[in-house]
Write a structure and sequence with these properties.
Blueprint (H helix, E strand, L loop, with lengths): L4 E5 L3 H13 L3 E5 L2 H11 L5 E4 L8 H12 L5 E4 L6 H9 L4 E3 L5 H12 L11 E3 L3 E6 L2 E11 L2 E5 L16
Parallel strand pairs: 1-2, 1-3, 3-4, 4-5
Antiparallel strand pairs: 6-8, 7-8, 8-9
Helix pairs in contact: 1-5, 2-3
């Protein structure tokens, strides 16, 4: 697994700290920021090294769609952006954000065990959606074991090719996993 760098931009320390702790615990680098000015400074300085931005649209002194536009002027669309869902004002804002390439939304108050699985598709996009057959979407929390490590994940879907799970520690593409019912 390659280590990733994630900017977590939120003016609430509780949210920043939970996301940063989850990322660092998984071996990644978190850059927690609490203001638009601090965020833009990191985007300018660390552009080549940032793998994901998780953004509160209500940062003090600048926010909303205009903040995303400013980021896009700096990064040219390079950094994947997720928005904290609780900071969306209305449906027209969702459309504007989609036009600016925002990749999705994440609940800032997600259970701690769901933080990493919700970020994984944006940090490891090549490890997701590899199946060619029809899929049944599932969103079931699961625990799995690799060696001596037990981890939490969310199921994505089930298809002829197998069961897809969303995890921060991607397994090899052809890894065999034994599933059992509890």
């Amino acid at each position: 697994m390659s280590n990733k760098t994630v900017i977590v931009a939120d003016d609430t320390a509780f949210v920043r700290d939970r996301f940063a702790t989850a990322l660092v615990g998984a071996g990644h680098k978190a850059l927690p920021v609490k203001s638009a000015a601090e965020l833009l400074a990191h985007v300018r300085e660390d552009l080549a090294h940032v793998d994901l931005l998780v953004l509160d649209l209500r940062l003090p002194h600048a926010g909303g769609v205009e903040l995303v536009r400013t980021i896009r002027k700096i990064d040219g669309g390079r950094i994947p952006i997720l928005v904290f869902s609780g900071t969306i004002a209305n449906a027209s804002e969702v459309k504007e954000l989609a036009a600016l390439g925002v990749g999705g939304y994440v609940n800032e108050y997600s259970a701690v065990q769901n933080i990493l699985p919700s970020l994984a598709p944006h940090l490891f996009p090549d490890n997701f959606n590899r199946r060619g057959s029809p899929r049944v979407v599932l969103g079931i929390p699961v625990a799995y074991r690799v060696g001596n490590t037990i981890a939490a994940a969310l199921t994505l879907n089930l298809s002829k090719g197998g069961l897809a799970i969303r995890t921060m520690s991607p397994l090899d593409q052809h890894a065999k996993v034994r599933v059992r019912k509890k």
